[in-house]
Amino acid sequence: MTSAQAAPVIDVHTHVVPHGWPDLAAECGGSGWPWLRIDSERDAMIMVGDTQFRPVGAACWDREVRAADMAEDRVDIQVVSPTPVFFNYERPTAQAAAVARIFNDLTLTVTADDPRFVPFCQVPLQDADAACTELDRSLAAGHCGVEIGNHIGDRDLDDEGVVTFLQHCAEVGAPVFVHPWDMSEGPRLDRWMARWLMGMPAETHLSILAMILGGVFDRVPDTLRMCFAHGGGSFPFWLGRADNAWHRRSDLVRGRSEHPPSHYTDRFLVDTVVFEPAALRLLVDTVGEDHVLLGSDYPYPLGERPVGRVVRDSPFLDERVRGKLLSGNALRFLGR
């Protein structure tokens, strides 16, 4: 281990972009697929059709670059998940399933039986049967869990197909990492990366509400291990507002939930990608010290570097709780 901790420091929120995927139109049909424009040995651009989506560097596909950064940041293990632009939930199931197989297999070439990296797969979430099939195939091939987007068009996480998939995840013991994606667009959101700065937290907030008010946590087994990215978005700050509305406007707000929102905070986890000790304290106070675990959003520029800074620098944490956030809670999430 690279850290002085007795237990491994685990970052549950990192992303991969495999190098050299095939022509997706030729492999899967359709058009307008993502492709990788190689600019140099260490730099590339994710393209979607003719549009630049995101510049990426060697840390996205070179595990030794990742390992060097992990050593510098005192991280022992990374959970390596897809970059959400590859989910393709809006496409026909057969196309999305084919892309999931391609990228899941390529991810394993990056992690390559290296204990420093824990691969999570993607699935064609628009179709529950296909999603379960790809999850099972990927787990058998070496993946350890699954990352899903927080919605499928206008279908949120209380959609019957998604609930079926989550029940299957609980049955097979696969941890689920939920990442916001496909945020709303418009003149007010297309400036200043507002889709990422405001849209992502709002998307995650809405999805946790959908899990609660849609009755999902009342229906899926409590063995389901589920973590939401970016500290649960804006949900922790506005939990009191949700509880107040649940009690005072039960005619509109309760939905299918049996209890107020605060009842369910022990049913999910959130990562620490909140950047400030005050925000981290709110998370710990709101969902509990057993439900917050280290994340970074590595290797993207809106992530935390050095990884774990906010956990290590927060004066309100004692060493026992800090150990849970850096290691123990992630071990439980991963089923280890």
UniProtKB/TrEMBL annotation:
Biological-process GO terms, alphabetical: secondary metabolic process
Coiled coil: none
Pathway(s) served: Secondary metabolite metabolism; quinolate metabolism
InterPro entries reported in the protein's UniProt record: ACMSD (IPR032465), Amidohydro-rel (IPR006680), Metal_Hydrolase (IPR032466)
Pfam families recorded: Amidohydro_2
EC number: 4.1.1.45
GO CC aspect terms: cytosol
Keywords from the UniProt entry: Decarboxylase, Lyase, Metal-binding, Zinc
Protein's UniProt keywords contain Transferase: no
Residue intervals of the Amidohydrolase-related domain: 10-336
Sample GO molecular function, one term: metal ion binding
Keyword Cell inner membrane: no
Record-stated family: Belongs to the metallo-dependent hydrolases superfamily. ACMSD family.
Quaternary data: Monomer.
Name of the molecule in the record: 2-amino-3-carboxymuconate-6-semialdehyde decarboxylase
Source species taxonomy: Bacteria, Bacillati, Actinomycetota, Actinomycetes, Pseudonocardiales
